[in-house]
Amino acid sequence: MPQDRVVPVVLSGGVGTRLWPLSREGYPKQFWPLTSGQSMLQETVGRATGPGFAAPMVICAEAHRFLVAEQLREAGVAGGRIVLEPAARNSAPAIAAAALLAAEEDPHALLWVMAADAAIQDLPALHAALERAAAAARAGHIVAFGMRPTRAETGFGYIEAGAALADAPGVSAIASFIEKPDLARAQALLEGGRHLWNAGMFVARAASLLAELERLQPELVASVRAAVDGASRDLDFVRLGPAFAGAPSISIDYAVMEHTAHAAVVPADLGWSDVGSWDALWQVSPKDGRGNATQGPVELLDADHCYVRSEGILTTVVGLKDVVVVATEDAVLALHRDRAQDVKKLVDQLKARKRPEAAAHRRMYRPWGHYEGLIQGDRFQVKKILVRPGEKLSLQKHYHRAEHWVVVNGTAIVERDAERILLRENESVYLPLGCVHRLENPGMIPLTLIEVQSGAYLGEDDIVRFEDTYGRA
């Protein structure tokens, strides 16, 4: 790693529950295009590419590893490291792991830590703020980005800017941190002019972070260091060892920033949003002359200041004001924008009732492509499967179901016991219960097929893998 290049560290462990039904555990908000044609993750990484930047380091859950890899590939990002957490432990352990990994190559590496799911409208202002923060970090400070508030917001923490730093123009010491305030206090903070939104974005040298973490959180560092020492590496992935799960679950604010004498803040006005709710997404979205933001097949009549999004079916709104309506393939959400924070309570209620829609979409993503359920009945179900060019499923068998595959687009190679069968459009193959089989796309275009399953048990766990390109058990 060349000396003093900025290492982007992207934290991609969030679930984005308040953006349900679009964002779910299986496919969280950072993987969706919310404010542009790119996903939030791709936008984030795109802000930190080019001269002066090293390849990014993305910290994520193991379940999302192939989503991250595919989205980085689509964005043309090469050489990045994808660090897999065996358990979610909040931001401090994730940042500690990133600092330890970066320090293996350069203890003085300059880390730029940011969430994968924030929107920023003014990139020149962002990079100007980054330059000021980097200069302060080189002087030994741990620098937070503080966003100038535009409203009395109760959903963010605040940073009180203190005295200007003599060794870092445009950067101030941090006088205090303030937890999410009530509305009256948020209004007072806005009017006072000294307080900034805490954007959860930081710049610091790896050595500076590690020194303060060692001093303030020695048990955390011991667990994370053991996890890094016990990490395994395959493809672009760094799998942290199981000791990571023993680290305290704590944010970097609580672990370091509120206790270190080296904390600083760079004030910035970037058009920033954490896109943490449907109301927040409405605020940063383009709107029509009546203040409505729409996405997908949507029709409005006499509607004002609404956010309406559809992922497929025609969605219509008549005579409503200040509402959110979101339609996905298997769920519809309707609420007043003032209740946007209550979506998390709704998801908790769905989980308590064991509704599968709380966490999983009908479309399920895999390293080779995706599948989605179409019809399910007694002892049968129908799925549509898409396999990307050059990819293949695992060599597998099932104990409880047989399968019938019909190719509707592209070309397939099917292994069935000792046979190797080439299928083209409108051709099919039968896979009897217990046969060892595999599906591969040898072509240059996506392979789409319809799968009909029949049997006494149709769960996804009825699978025995003999060989897998992607290292799945």
UniProtKB/TrEMBL annotation:
It catalyses: alpha-D-mannose 1-phosphate + GTP + H(+) = GDP-alpha-D-mannose + diphosphate. Residues 8-288 form the Nucleotidyl transferase domain. The keyword Transmembrane helix does not apply. It is an enzyme of class 2 (transferase). One of its GO terms (biological process) is GDP-mannose biosynthetic process. Its EC number is 2.7.7.13. It comes from the Bacteria. Residues 355-468 form the Mannose-6-phosphate isomerase type II C-terminal domain. Keywords: GTP-binding, Isomerase, Nucleotide-binding, Nucleotidyltransferase, Transferase. Residues 301-350 form the MannoseP isomerase/GMP-like beta-helix domain. One of its GO terms (molecular function) is mannose-1-phosphate guanylyltransferase (GTP) activity. InterPro entries: GMPP_N (IPR049577), Man1P_GuaTrfase/Man6P_Isoase (IPR006375), Man6P_isomerase-2_C (IPR001538), ManC/GMP-like_b-helix (IPR054566), Mannose-6P_isomerase_type2 (IPR051161), NTP_transferase_dom (IPR005835), Nucleotide-diphossugar_trans (IPR029044), RmlC-like_jellyroll (IPR014710). Belongs to the mannose-6-phosphate isomerase type 2 family. This is mannose-1-phosphate guanylyltransferase. It comes from Muricoccus roseus.
